[in-house]
Amino acid sequence: MSKKKKPAIDAVQRINADIAEVGWSVVIGPDQDGFAYTVGLTETHLQAELCVHGVTDSDLTHRLLDQLAQRIVQDDVPLLGTRIDGVLRDLDLFLLATDKRARDRATYAAARYGSAVRFVQCVLPDATNRFPWNYAVNRWQTFGQIVMAPWPKDDTPEDQFPTMLELMAR
Known about the structure:
Layout: H1 7-22, E1 25-28, E2 36-39, H2 41-45, E3 49-52, H3 58-73, E4 83-88, E5 91-97, H4 100-105, H5 107-113, E6 119-123, E7 141-142, E8 145-146, H6 164-169
């Protein structure tokens, strides 16, 4: 009689195989709130892990995180706090260093790296191409996306944001 593997064991094996093959794995959270993140960039490329919240289309989320991870790996390391155009077709995003809420939700990354893991959140605009901080709305949740980072100020020069390598050194 064969025993079925537990889903968590299967997930860890898939993550390990992905990291061995391409250097990272994309993990789609179990909740329906669209939280997803990478595991592997920390160890294979000495970069912060990526996360996104509020995108409930898991295929889109997977492609988004894969495309951005590929850019980072190919030394096109974006500056935190900057808008990045056209990651997927015409989709723009903003990168922000997260607070501990991302680590608390990213269980596989936290189990693998502990408190040393750092995350960068990919914040997406709404249908009118405006980001959450462009509205006078609830600071922490808008159009289904929780921003797990301090919001940028419109007048903050981009050169005051750290690079991803500087974030990892913190």
